[in-house]
């Protein structure tokens, strides 16, 4: 069942994410070659807390989000050299595709995540982001060629993702990068 007025499904793929060594260049390339934009850039993305492979950690990443039609794309640049889910995939095969994201309603988030883990996927990362929503990655790299992220779609997340999607509708190419601050 869609939750956004643009048809994004609960428990369906809502995003494809890619790592990059240079997010500025990647945004420009994706805009130039694929006409994706505008990009919403979160420099030094804020976490309330984060665990990597079950251990508390620190992580410095910059992320950019944009949509094309009904699909959201995420670019991720890790700004430090600490171990992470992003470094794991990069070391395995270089930069590029990293994960798909699926949406889960807050009341279903724990069970959706538990189903992936029960199905044999290792929990690779858990976090709460600045706007209060939770997200987790399960390691499906060997079976699917990328990880799966489960995103808790709170009203704040739904509002942010809807704003990003609506900005892409009829976008005329102006202001291709829009910097957002964590709130």
Question: How are the secondary structure elements laid out?
Answer:
Blueprint (H helix, E strand, L loop, with lengths): L12 E7 L3 H12 L4 E4 L4 E6 L2 E2 L4 E8 L2 E8 L6 H9 L2 E9 L4 H10 L3 E8 L4 E6 L1 H4 L2 E6 L2 H14 L8 E3 L4
Parallel strand pairs: 1-6, 2-11, 7-10
Antiparallel strand pairs: 1-7, 2-5, 3-4, 3-8, 5-6, 8-9, 9-10
Can you describe what's shown?
The longest helix is centred in the last third of the chain and has 14 residues, at 155-168. The relative contact order is 0.23. The chain has 183 residues and is an alpha+beta fold. Strands 4-3-8-9-10-7-1-6-5-2-11 form an eleven-stranded mixed sheet, with helices on both faces. The radius of gyration is 15 Å and the shape is globular. It has one domain: 2,3-Dihydroxybiphenyl 1,2-Dioxygenase, domain 1. It has helices spanning 23-34, 85-93, 109-118, 141-144, 155-168; strands at 13-19, 39-42, 47-52, 55-56, 61-68, 71-78, 96-104, 122-129, 134-139, 147-152, 177-179.
**How many β-strand runs?**
11
Biggest sheet strand line-up = 4-3-8-9-10-7-1-6-5-2-11
Uncertain spans:
none
The profile of the biggest β sheet is:
11 strands, mixed
Q: How are helices and strands ordered from N to C?
A: EHEEEEEHEHEEHEHE
How many domain regions?
A: 1
Task: Provide keyphrases for this structure.
single chain; 183 residues; alpha+beta; 2,3-Dihydroxybiphenyl 1,2-Dioxygenase, domain 1; eleven-stranded mixed β-sheet; 5 helices; 11 strands; globular
């Amino acid at each position: 069942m869609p939750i956004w007025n643009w048809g994004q499904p609960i428990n369906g793929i809502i995003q494809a994410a890619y790592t990059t060594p240079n997010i500025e260049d990647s945004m420009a390339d994706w805009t130039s070659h694929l006409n994706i934009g505008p990009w919403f850039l979160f420099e030094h993305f804020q976490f309330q807390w984060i665990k990597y492979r079950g251990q508390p950690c620190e992580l410095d990443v910059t992320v950019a989000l944009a949509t094309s039609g009904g699909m959201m794309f995420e670019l991720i640049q890790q700004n430090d050299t600490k171990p992470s889910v992003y470094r794991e995939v990069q070391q395995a095969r270089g930069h590029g595709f990293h994960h798909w994201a699926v949406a889960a309603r807050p009341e279903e988030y724990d069970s959706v995540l538990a189903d992936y883990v029960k199905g044999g996927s290792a929990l690779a990362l858990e976090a709460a982001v600045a706007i209060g929503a939770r997200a987790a990655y399960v390691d499906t790299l060997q079976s699917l060629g990328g990880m799966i992220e489960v995103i808790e779609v709170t009203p704040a997340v739904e509002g942010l993702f809807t704003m990003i999607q609506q900005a892409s509708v009829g976008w005329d190419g102006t202001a291709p990068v829009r910097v957002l601050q964590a709130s």
